Amino acid sequence: MNYNNRPIPKITIENIDLSNPPPYSETDPNTDRNNNNTQESQSQLPPRIPQRPHRSISRQSRTPHRSNSFASIHSSPATPISRNNSLYSRKPPLPPRSPSLRSYNSNNDQFLEQENPPTLPKRPSSRGSYKMQDVLNSNNYNQFCSAQQEFQSGPKLPKRPPCLIKRKMVESEEITDTVNIETVDNVDSYKSEPIETETLEIISDDSAAQSPEAVSQEQPIDEKAECEPEPAPVAELQPGTETLDETEKIIEMMETFEIEQDIFQQTLPIGPPPAIFPHTVHPVSPPIITPSGLPIETNKFYGNLLLASQTLPTWTHPYSVWVAKDPSQFGLAVSYVPSSQKVFAPGVPPEFYFSPVGIKSLVFGATEFSTAADMTLVLKNPKHMSVQLQIQKSSTSYFVAPLVQGMGFVTAVYSNMTPVVTSGVGFVSLTKLTSVKPFQQKYSVLLQNQVIWTLYLTVESGQTVNLTLTDPNTIKANAKLSKAIIQIVRSTENSIDTAAGCYSTDCELSGYTTGTIGKYIFKYSTNGSSLSGASLHYALPHHVQTFAPTMGPFRINSKLDSTTKGVMTGYIINKFEMTVTIPTALGFAPFTTIPGKAFPNYTTAELAAIRTAAQADVLGDVVTESNVNSMYFAGKILAKYAWVLYVCQYILKDSTLVATLMPKLKAAFNTFTSNTQILPLTYDTTWKGIVSSGDSSQDFGNSYYNDHHFHYGYHVLAAAILGKVDNDAGSKNWIPQNRAWVESLIRDYANPNDNDQYFPVFRSFDWYHGHSWAKGLFVSGDGKDEESSSEDVNSVYALKLWGLVTGDEYMVSRANLQLGIMRVSLNNYFLYADSNQTVPPIFKPNRVSGILFENKVDHTTYFGTLIQYIQMIHAIPITPSSSFIRTPDFVREEYNQLLAPIVNTVVDGWRGVIMLNVALYDPASSYAFFTSPGFLPAYLDPGQSLTWSLAYSAAFN
Q1: What is d(CA 92, CA 526) in angstroms, rounded to the nearest whole number?
Q2: Which residues contact 385 (CB under 8 A, 6 or more apart)?
Q3: What is the pLDDT of residues 13-25, one digit of tens each?
Q4: CA–CA separation, 306 vs 319, rounded Å?
Q5: HEC states along 785-802?
Q6: What's the pLDDT at 260?
Q7: 75 CB neighbour count, 10 Å cutoff
Q8: Residue 946: what are its φ and ψ, rounded to 5°?
Q9: Quick check: 374 and 331 in contact, CB under 8 A?
Q10: Is 791 known to be catalytic?
Q11: For residue 246, what is the DSSP state?
């Protein structure tokens, strides 16, 4: 694909001809890569995905063969990967980009060649260790019938005090593929439903609109009081009551528990991490942050503000913002890209699409800033869903922009400054409209591309000010203001007037579980005031699909496009309340959502085949195989043997095999719990987390916080299985001896406690987006990203298993809630079944996202472009949790359309991954593959055992 002769629109024009997409630049939209921001800024066109051949099976020949062997890992440390762009991610490299990359210089209308396009460090060619869940084994339950005990046994966990837990017997529902988002029991659906378009009444019954007289008595705009709270009632959730057939009566015997307190209030220990982790100082220093000394989020949406020049975009959705340092337009730049401007690769289906970046629709500034150098950036109160960016001339002269996920307004709160708003697109007109609130002005801002933004200016009583269009690119206030709020929104919907003047500053998360239902709530903290007592927020499709009925009256007739996640819907309310179906029945044992196949069942012949495989697998050298210079690969090996151990204990019930393997697995774990592995872990006192002692190019950037949930999730899962078997057939002391080490890893990637001074809250999981981000301390022109949705699931499933085996019911409930959310979000944004209504239709035939960035979707991987890599990186490891996420219909569609044509040509471990994945909809065919005379050990991924492959595929055969 040649971009050399393509016409390229000027950066000031938002409308881009999709038939002629612009060239790609992965750099800061404000800086010339060659002078490191020391000269005049340059507007750059958006990040482009690497050039690749049209998707076909023939592209296999273009990718070097990758071995399943771990020999290279054992023999030598990882070789640092050369990078040719320090501004971009250091994760594994995408395929080479075209050398004809250019950036647009808005000053001289010339295109500058971009040398050395960015690359990312390399991810492995194969992944996958497989964990099992025991539907019948949840240690939180009272007792099990004899049929259940064929698969597991174990000591009961201690009950929590009665004041915390209310236990009752309920019927458990079978999870099926039937979805109906109109009912609470089926909120796991991922199909977007049409939303009525009538304008809604925003003022609820007991929150009447304020009269002008009442408004005049409002609090000063800089005061920290919240906007008047919205009074929406909270609906009570009831557990499901589906009729159980005879095959489900085992689960009827199980107790379920209701947690009457917020599940985020019960936490892990918050003391110092174990002394086994030596303290280190990170080579990357954070910017100015207040308050100082607290744990800093490393994988959140505002990551670019923490690194390098702090000038790459932050996506709050539906907007992107960045600190602009162009000499003529400096301040906080704002952009919104509608779906009509998305750029798609050629071909059907296209291999990628993205939204242009660097378009300065509007830029907040002030006359007090003479140059960009006058601006000092201070990040205030960074949390997992918000941060406040203060751009200051001095400690008394500044403006603050609260950045909160889903915020409907982009807001600048000025103190002792003269506001200026500029535009790189250019203004046609500034029209003052009638305002519905005293001390507030409303303007319609028409840009040169015929796009209209609405601007609200709110001042304190006694201040007089007007905004004037002084030139085609500049709007200025005619007075310096002690306090003022300027808000912009890419909408002309009049109902938004009732939210103007109120803005979000933070978001508090809470959650509850009852039976098979999980409820989670975003409560937005707000400042200022508005007629409705609330601000404007936009919801992603997976929010809307799971909203409680009480949300309906607060929806307005305003929809905006996200970059990669479909259409967002506006709500004037300070609280999002969502309900999802949670996998209460999911435990250690094999589990499926195939209709009519509720419980594992094995024939004598199947058990004999599993036993033969296990007798060979238990002879493996677990210590040597797992002692590699990668927490990721080591975790895969530990989890592989942990599943073999589980099968030996609970399916085969073979104490001899258990006695052979369990000491080996304990010895292998001891290498890590004693911190004597090749690359020991350390505690980073700078950002506060457990990191590898390797450099940024080793272990996929673990030391820079890449992929922690992937890496540590495997270790936590393996520890849960080992601890369970030790409780039932061993010394019963493995968990007490190693709990602190395991829970240090959990605190690193999934800490629920914002009072923990040693780890940030939920480093990996993004509660707004409903999945994790893998990218750590690396700047990125397209924001955070995640490549393996299935290993994301694995990391959360590991939390549930650890909670089960340690009796932490709050951890179990949090993990259940996360899994329930992920079932909806992943099937909207990562997995594309025929029924998916969120992904662009032209992209749907790819069936999976590949790498999902905040700003682009690329159907590739960091380690190669073979179709088995791209599809199956979203499947490994196949565990009991896989079927909860990857529905039988989706797996069938993906296999028939993309994998069946190539599976017989795959001769490495990806073939085994593909065929175990088939067990999610056709267990008989999967089992037949693993027992066929032509089966070869080379078909197994290094993290996959034949024992587990047979045990899982035969369970529902």
Answers
A1: 40
A2: 300, 404, 405, 506, 507, 509, 522, 767, 768
A3: 333 333 333 333 3
A4: 19
A5: EECCHHHHHHHHHHHHHH
A6: 62
A7: 9
A8: -65, -35
A9: no
A10: yes
A11: G
Cα–Cα distance, 542 to 544 (Å, whole number) = 6
Cα–Cα distance, 554 to 530 (Å, whole number) = 15
Contact 388, 505 (CB under 8 A): yes
Domains, in order of start, for the chain: 286-495 (2.70.98.30)
**Strand stretches in 797-876, DSSP E:** 851-853, 856-858
Q: Which residues pair with 938 in a beta bridge?
A: none
* pLDDT score, position 83: 29
**What 3-state DSSP class applies to 348?**
coil
Q: What does the pLDDT average to over 343-362?
A: 98
* Calpha distance 296→361 (Å, rounded): 31
**Three-state SS at 545:** coil
Instruction: Report the alpha-carbon distance of residue 886 to residue 792 in Å, rounded.
Output: 13
Q: Which of 786, 791, 858, 922 is catalytic?
A: 791
Strands 279-280 and 681-684: parallel
Q: Which of 28, 174, 625, 707 is catalytic?
A: 707
Tokens matching residue 597: 């196949």
Do residues 190 and 545 touch, judged by C-beta distance below 8 A? yes
Number of Cβ atoms within 10 Å of the Cβ of 171: 18
Cα(134)–Cα(152) distance, integer angstroms: 8
* Tokens 């080479």 belong to residue: 96
Compute CA distances 513 → 239, 546, 795, whole Å.
Answer: 9, 15, 20
- The phi, psi pair for 183, rounded to 5°, reads -115, 145
Cβ atoms within 10 Å of 484's Cβ, excluding its own: 26
d(CA 403, CA 421): 18
Q: Tokens at residue 755, please? A: 């009072």
User: Nearest-CA neighbor of 81 among 132, 123, 50, 114?
Assistant: 123
Question: Token digits for 110?
Answer: 């010339």
State both tokens at 634.
């080591």
For tokens 């942050």, the residue is 289
Determine contact, residues 349/848, Cβ cutoff 8 Å: no
Task: Considering the candidates 787, 809, 854, 893, report the single residue annotated as catalytic.
Answer: 787
Cα–Cα distances in Å, from 441 out to 432, 464, 484, 813, 875? Answer: 7, 11, 11, 47, 53
Chain Cα centroid distance, residue 201: 33
For residue 396, the one-letter residue type is T
Radius of gyration of the chain (CA): 28
Q: Does the pTM exceed 0.90? A: no
Tokens matching residue 310: 């702090």
DSSP 122-159: PPPS--------BTT--TTSS---HHHHTT---PPPPP
Question: Among this protein's residues, is 115 annotated catalytic?
Answer: no
Asked if residue 21 lies in contact with residue 343, where contact means CB atoms within 8 angstroms, the answer is: yes
Write the pLDDT tens digit of every residue in 793-803.
Answer: 999 999 999 99
What does the alpha-carbon distance between residue 209 and residue 220 come to, in Å, rounded to a whole number? 19
Amino acid in the structure at residue 37: N
Q: Residue 706 corresponds to which amino acid?
A: N
Partner residues linked to 404 by β-bridges: 386
What are phi and psi for residue 445, nearest 5 degrees? -115, 110
Give the mean pLDDT of 576-603: 97
What tokens appear for 830 in the block?
A: 């990562």
665-719 per-position pLDDT tens digit = 999 999 999 999 999 999 999 999 999 999 999 999 999 999 999 999 999 999 9
Sheet holding 689-692, edge to edge: 279-280, 681-684, 689-692
854 is catalytic: no
> What are phi and psi for residue 853, nearest 5 degrees?
-95, 175
pLDDT value for 227: 67
Question: If DSSP codes are grouped into helix, strand and coil, which group holds residue 853?
Answer: strand
